[in-house]
Amino acid sequence: MDGKRLGFDSKFQLNKCNKRSKGDNDRISRLPDDILVNILSYLSMKEAARTSVLSSRWVNLWRHTSSLDFRADAALARIRENYDLCSEERRKYEEWVDRIIRSHKSVTLKEFSVCFDLGLSSQESITRWLELAFTRHVQKLDLDFSVKVKNKTSPRTHYTLPEELFTGRTSGKSSCIDFKSLKELSLKCVNLTGEAIEFFLHNCPFLEKLVIHYTDKISNLDVCGPPSLVLKHFELMHCNYLKSVKVSAPNLISLIGPNIDVLLLENVPMLKEVYINCMHYNDSVEKLLPTYSCCISQLEILTLELNSHRKLGLGMHLTKVVLPTFPELTKLKKLVVSYWTDHDQSLMGLTPLIRASPNLQEFVLKLWMDDPSRSHRKVKNTTTRLPHHHLKVFKFCGYYGRSSDVELVRYILKNSVVLEKIIIDPFEPILRDFELCGEDLERIQIARGFAKQQLEARVPQRVELVIL
Questions:
Q1: What is the DSSP string of 204-264?
Q2: Beta strand residue intervals within 271-427, DSSP E
Q3: Which residue of 105, 181, 214, 455 could cross-link 155, Cys pair, CB 3.0 to 4.6 Å?
Q4: Measured at the alpha carbon of residue 290, what is the angle toward residues 284 and 296, in degrees to the nearest 5?
């Protein structure tokens, strides 16, 4: 098998592939260098570095990977358990990144990712890392300084993107910064202005994905760019002072937008996936739907975030989900509904939305409950038969065996003509990101028991029932 050899420096000489003893059965090490390095790029940074102990052939291979992914989940877990360790863990993390960067040899980077709870004292180091990433023509850049704690993400904006990066002068000297190779940019808990975002849109001709979370310096934003804009995926979330966004992107496929007063969509003929957040008390589906009127008929994937507290005062409850009349979503294939509530209320109010999507193939419900306890209300059997002719998969996240849970599953079973699979996930969506305590595990085990008891006998043989 022939392959291109890498242009390593003179101090890094590898054995030729054909120089092997007759009894050598190490077939992987016989592969060309560029293939081995490509394989290593799929490993985490620590895993790739560990391969250096395999043999002399592998000692320096990891230094030439095109992916630098500095994730440190174990250290972040220790910080979540005891925040007093934060300063020491930050120091170790910063030293680790610096050490890897000093020994790294690849002249180009496909990916550069820094995800950690870093403080203001790391500003200079982060800027230095960014400078290196851009001078090596990075294609995918991910900075995530958000702090995940159980049941929420705690935003801490520790890093401010310096203007010097855009003027070509960093570290007090002229620097060759190249943004033209950038294809994906994700910035979470990074302070940057709307002007900085527009700079990336105008100066990164290959930018296809842009993700911005938790920044407080944006008030009005134009996501327009030049006529040649290739942006396909745009995500803008948790920007507290954002007032208006204008989007004009002819190649845009997916849009995950924030809760804002003004969202103007123009020239989005390719838009197929939209996320609508109605979590705030003063937001409603009725209010936000007109914003998407220019594209709602072309959507193939729709995600809705709903809150049962929206229209009621403190201490009052809705008895069921109430949605406005949706226009017919003829192209919709996947519907995801995240619904936040604090008691066992009927979920049958979601069914008109399913009926408005005649070609729907997958329905995912993510139920978030403040109080997962079950009421003593009897399960109601629906007598209405409104067949869904294309629904094949139904996934219920946060199932706990409440009357409302069972009613919705029975409705799906009764009306889905070609249903192939039901997935019951007793985990609340937020719990999947964290190590569970004994109380959480016990509640999940109880939910699994109820799911088996309530559903197994009712699911026909043609439908696969999966209880996670």
A1: -TT--EEEEES-SS-SEEEE---TT----EEEEE--TT--EEEEE-TT--EEE----SEEE
A2: 273-278, 301-307, 334-341, 362-369, 393-397, 421-425
A3: 214
A4: 105
What type of residue sits at position 94? Answer: E
The single residue listed with the structure tokens 């139904």 is 394
Helices (H), 276-433: 285-288, 351-355, 403-415
- In the chain, the N- to C-terminal Cα span, in Å, equals 43
**Rounded Cα distance, 37 and 20, in Å:** 19
What are the beta bridge partners of residue 113? Answer: 69, 142
pLDDT tens readout for residues 281-340: 445 677 777 788 888 889 999 998 887 654 434 444 555 666 777 888 999 999 999 888
Query: For 274, what's the count of Cα atoms within 13 Å in the CB-facing half-sphere?
Result: 24
Which has the minimum average pLDDT: 61-70, 229-238, 403-412? 61-70
Q: What is the DSSP letter of 31?
A: S
Cα 59-8-50 angle, rounded to 5 deg: 20
Q: Which residues contact 23 (CB under 8 A, 6 or more apart)?
A: none
Q: Which residues contact 100 (CB under 8 A, 6 or more apart)?
A: 45, 49, 68, 70
Phi/psi for 160 (5° steps) reads -110, 125
Query: pTM to 2 decimals?
Result: 0.81
Residue spans of alpha helices (H) in 104-193: 123-135, 164-167
